[in-house]
Structures are given as C-alpha cells and as structure tokens.
C-alpha cells in the first residue's frame, strides 16, 4: 500500500539531509540511507518523486504533493503515463519544494540516487539549487562523462559501482559512505559571505594567463576587493555569468576569451551563445581583454599529431592531447567580429583593453606562438570593429605584463567606484 504518513515539519535543531528519489523503485535503499543518516545524528527528510509504482516506505513529502507543486496531479499523470511528462512535472515540483526549504533554512544538504533517468532527474533538481548548498548524486552513470548532469553547478557525483537494485553487503557500504559524505558537507556548510558594500569581481582565466591573474587577485585584494576566478573553458565561463545573474558577481575582469575562439573553430573550450553578453545586459562594470584568442584548443584523437587543417599554422601542444594552433590574421578578424557582436549589449561601464605584444604567454616575444603580424591584424580589427560605445585602451605590453594588469585593475575599480 502507499504509505502517506509523511511529516513535513522539521522541528529538531539537528541538521537535515534531504533524500530525493523514486521511492517506489529505490525505497529499500532510501530507507537504509535514512537510517545511516540518522545514526550520524542528522535528520533525514525524504521526498518521493516516483509516479507509476507503489511506495512502501514512510516519506516526508509524498509524490502527490510533488506533482501538484509541479503543476499537475498524480491522477492526471497516471491517465496516460509518460516518462517524459512525469519527469518534467516531478522535477519542477521538487525544485520548487527544495528552494522553499532552503530559503526557510529547513534543510542543509541533498542526496539523490538513481540510474540513467534517476540521475537525470536528481541532477536537474540540483542544478536549480543555490551554489554552495551541498549536493550529492549517487549514480550508476558517475564514471562516464557527467558534464550533462553536473552542468555548471557544484554537484558531487559518486559512482555506485553496482546497480541500485536492492541491498547487499557491498551496496550497504556505498550508501553508508554516501550518508557520511552528505552529512559531512551539511556539517561543514558555510553560507557565502562577502565584505559588505564591496562588489565581488569575477575573473576569467586560462593557463596561459595565470601569472597575470595571480597578480590581479593580489591587486584587487590590496584595494579591498574579493574575487572569484573561473577557467574560461566553456563551463567555467557559464558559471561566472550565472553568478552575475544570481547577484553574486557584480563586476567583471574578463581576462580570458579563448572560449570565444574555440566556439568559432570547434575547440575544446567552446563558449555558449550567451557568453560575453550577460554583464552588458545587466549593466555591470567590466574590463575586457581578448586573452587567449591567439590560439585554439583542439582535442586530438592521437596524441602529439598535427591535424591536416592546421599543418600550415604555427602550433604547439598544451599537453599531448590538446593541440594549439596559432590563430592567423584572417581568423583573428573572425574572432574579433564575434566578440564585437556580443559586446553590442554593453552600453556603459565597459572598457576594452588590448595588449599589443601578445594576448597570452603563447604569443609573447619568447612564446611558442609569437606572431607579430597576426597581432597587428588584431589591432586593426579591434579599432575597426569594437562598438563605439566601448572605450578602448591600447598598451604596448603583453597581456601578462605587470603594468598591463595593474592598469586593468585600476580601470575596473574606477568603473566600480564612479
């Protein structure tokens, strides 16, 4: 029979871990996980997101309520059962319920478990939760490419090794480990706290700009500003811009734009279509440097080889399987055209800074991809294509030179404090 003895009230002072799963097929495992969490001195709060099957364990929020929060009813979902429709409704309802619990400071972590569908649904819910709220997914899918499940959120993926289908001595230990991990994260959970009244600076970075980024972090700190650095390889840039939307980041030193180059030339660091538009739309102060567009990151099928397409380019290797061809003059124009198009949203508080002696360590005078002719083409393209609403500062430096980084930091702070 379906057990409906749920208790949605959380009154204990103990910290609470949510268990989110299809309790019809994962009930035995979730009940064991609950007991493990409780044995560690924490509350366990079960949310059932099953649809078709029968739930035989006690839960805190039953599937009927999840469906209602998701904009449907269990009766409607069961008229013509559809995995896709059921998942959409239950995910939507779970997101709403979880964010209410988090906003009211009722829960401290979430753990979910599942196979292909369960991982997809559990992670969709977690992707909609705030950054830094502890999220653990115990999954049969966790040893493969988990990028679609993790997205740009801080989800911890734990490989279940065996299928999640009944208890045995091995899987009991896996669930016990999961309980320990979730409770540990709940116990150590700290709210994000920043200096009052001081904007948080988001910095995009690439490995070929790291020395400049380290210097920028120091300079911002000396002036009383904290910063968060993001690896500009697609997912990192998306996370930075999501934090702008969330109000966490309120000023930007966009130092690495190699993901724009890769988006145009099928590189491994490719940005999405929204990249470099968010700060402008929000009106955030930003200093932009075309750092890292002097090369593309190409993932090789065979280590240390040269793709036919790039045999006439200067090239190097970031590592044995990441091939980095130099972007020539024509490619620089294409990349700058795209950058300018995306910056059309930036009407105020935006400065574009161009180092004329190379936009990364690769194109410095002693770098593997030194090519002053292509750099000169970039300079001309910037002057021609950059939107007139954006101030341009050119400096006779490499992007990592101390003088250039100091000027970038000073410029951004002047935009912040204007």
TrEMBL record:
Record domain UPF0261: where: 15-190, 198-415
InterPro entries per the UniProt record, alphabetical: Tobamovirus_resist_UPF0261, UPF0261, UPF0261_C, UPF0261_N
Pfam families, A to Z: UPF0261, UPF0261_C
Protein name: Tm-1-like ATP-binding domain-containing protein
Organism: Thalassotalea psychrophila
Highest classification ranks of the organism: Bacteria, Pseudomonadati, Pseudomonadota, Gammaproteobacteria, Alteromonadales
């Amino acid at each position: 029979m379906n057990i409906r003895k749920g208790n949605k009230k959380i009154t204990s002072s103990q910290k609470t871990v949510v268990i989110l799963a299809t309790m019809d097929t994962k009930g035995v495992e979730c009940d064991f996980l609950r007991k493990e969490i409780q044995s560690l001195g924490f509350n366990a709060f079960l949310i059932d997101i099953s649809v078709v099957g029968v739930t035989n364990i006690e839960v805190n929020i039953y599937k009927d309520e999840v469906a209602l929060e998701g904009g449907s009813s269990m009766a409607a979902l069961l008229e013509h059962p559809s995995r896709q429709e059921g998942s959409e409704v239950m995910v939507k309802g779970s997101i709403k319920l979880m964010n209410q619990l988090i906003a009211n400071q009722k829960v401290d972590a979430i753990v979910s478990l599942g196979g292909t569908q369960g991982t997809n649904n559990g992670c969709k819910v977690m992707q909609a939760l705030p950054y830094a709220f502890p999220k653990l997914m115990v999954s049969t899918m966790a040893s493969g490419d988990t990028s679609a499940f993790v997205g740009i959120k801080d989800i911890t993926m734990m490989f279940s090794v065996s299928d999640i289908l009944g208890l045995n001595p091995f899987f009991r230990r896996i669930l016990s480990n999961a309980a320990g991990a979730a409770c540990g994260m709940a116990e150590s959970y700290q709210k994000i706290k920043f200096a009052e009244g001081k904007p948080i600076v988001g910095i995009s970075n690439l490995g070929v700009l790291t020395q400049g980024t380290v210097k920028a972090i120091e300079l911002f700190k000396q002036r009383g500003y904290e910063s968060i650095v993001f690896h500009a390889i697609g997912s990192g840039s998306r996370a930075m811009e999501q934090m702008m939307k969330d109000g966490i980041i309120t000023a930007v030193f966009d130092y690495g734009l190699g993901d724009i180059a890769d988006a145009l030339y099928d590189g491994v660091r490719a940005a999405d279509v929204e990249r470099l538009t968010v700060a402008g739309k929000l009106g955030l102060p930003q200093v932009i440097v075309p750092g890292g567009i002097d090369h593309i990151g190409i993932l090789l099928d065979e280590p240390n080889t040269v793709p036919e397409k790039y045999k006439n380019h200067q090239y190097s290797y970031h590592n044995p399987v990441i091939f980095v061809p130099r972007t020539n003059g024509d490619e620089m124009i294409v990349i700058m055209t795209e950058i300018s198009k995306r910056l059309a949203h930036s009407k105020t508080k935006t400065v574009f800074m161009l180092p004329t002696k190379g936009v990364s360590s690769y194109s410095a005078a002693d770098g593997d991809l030194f090519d002053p002719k292509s750099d000169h083409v970039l300079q001309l393209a910037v002057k021609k294509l950059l939107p007139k609403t954006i101030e341009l500062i050119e400096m006779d430096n490499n992007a990592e030179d101390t003088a250039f980084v100091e000027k970038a930091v000073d410029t951004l702070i002047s935009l912040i404090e204007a």
